[in-house]
Amino acid sequence: MVLGHRKNSLTSNRSSTDAARDSDAEEDVEVVNTEQGNVLTHIISQLRPGADLSRVTLPTFILEPRSMLERITNFMAHPDILLTLPTIDDPIKRFVAVTKFYLSGWHIKPPGVKKPLNPILGETFTGFWEYPDGTKGYYISEQTSHHPPKSSYFFMAPEHRIRIDGTLKPRSKFLGNSVGSFMEGIAVMRFLNRNERYFITQPNMYARGILFGKMKYELGDHAVVRCPETGLEADIEFKVKGWMGGTYNAIGGYIKDSKSGKNLFELSGLWHGEMFSKDLATGKKELLFDATHAKPSMVKARPLNEQSQGESQRLWDTTTRAIKKADHRSATDEKSRIEDEQRKLASDRGGEENWTPVLFKAAPPGDEEQLDWIINAQVDANASPDKQIQQILAIAPILPGSSMQEAKQQPSEQSKTLSPQQSTQSQQTQRSGNDLIDFGQHDSSASQPRQQQPQQPSSSSASNDLAAGMSGMSMRGSSAAPAQQQPAAQQWRNGQPVVRQNSAGTEETFVDAET
User: Fold this and answer.
1) Model confidence band, residue 493 (pLDDT cutoffs 50, 70, 90)
2) Nearest to 98 by CA among 194, 221, 220
3) Which domain does 419 fall in, by range?
4) What is the pLDDT of residues 357-387, one digit of tens each?
5) How far apart are CA 321 and CA 304, in angstroms?
6) Does the structure show a pLDDT above 70 at 6?
7) Is 196 helix (H, G, I), strand (E, B) or coil?
8) Which regions of 38-103 does DSSP assign to beta strands (E)?
9) How much is the pTM?
């Protein structure tokens, strides 16, 4: 099985009568005015079906005022489900609950058809959740590649023994009256107390009706949740509406024992409404998740005046404020200014191959190699939660009032492996904000070879590092003792105070985006 690839839903036979409600809701539809329609028509008239959109700059009226790095946090927005998962003793019930958690985030979205801002190369976003039991969850992300686009992220809730590593690799195509964003990449969720991993892929995303009719957002095709330690697997189809019938936003699929090939549960319903699981042994059907009454817990971030120029909310602040006011001229001007700066920086350093991620390093070979990048720090799976929190907070500023002073004083893994010239280039990149901005997707033929990675530790060393931090997690590695690492430092400069609601706010909050 190849992770990150899925079967297409070219036909959608609606076998489920569980979800009778048609999901063609107003919040999923975007109605553009004449001027906006003319802009889209002008852009699209220059394309052919199947064209790559990597160099197409989209108008700001279809942008959500939030970076993709922040949008990824929707995956962790239901701690009421997430935090209970490692405590479930029965492996089958635990897997069903993981599937429920996976399906719980798709309803989180802004009105209409919007896409998040493309992160620039080296852009970072960090955040945290405060849970009812007094514990916290911590999130660190970085745009580790621009061509092809790769958004890498790390999440951990130490007291609850949960860790998530992931890299999202979207690529978009013009399909005629639609745009498809094909969401490659994987996430690996670990329960440290169970020695279990859950490999997770995403459905594809479609914006329909961009030439004629109303613009409509759909999820489509198959996604997979798989636990190699238990042999359980969920194959979930996100069904697109057919020409002759059916409904929007339907899902279907099965949870099976991959060792025997036996289906255990059938999944059905609407990803923006009620979803059900049916035990095929007993015939009993139960409500799995009701998105209509769900209240997500959104990530919190440090104030803007504590963020560096390369952090998402500060980087895009002027642009996002203009988008929220529907001041598309100002939003376009500001976005263009950032584009021009990044093009110049890319030209000055001689291309993306001369840049190395700051907070992430190359993933070791093995069944997690498709992560591409993992956090460039050792977080010891066997350490106490307090020690793990200390290790996480040493990677980058996450909590309000935190700084990088201690981390700056530590020798970083990157400084050990880069030549002096490369280290200088990387530091300049950290200060400047990095590469150019466009739609952020790519054609497979444009994929870069791993030229970025010769500066990274050898595969053997990287495997040792990850194995040391995740001992007992059934991962490949040698018996050699890993060297202690410290994360690479970055200039986290204070700027002028700016008053702004963060993503935990109310009237300012947009809680999702579609690419």
Assistant:
1) very low
2) 194
3) 50-218+299-515
4) 999 999 999 989 999 999 999 999 999 999 9
5) 13
6) no
7) strand
8) 63-67
9) 0.72
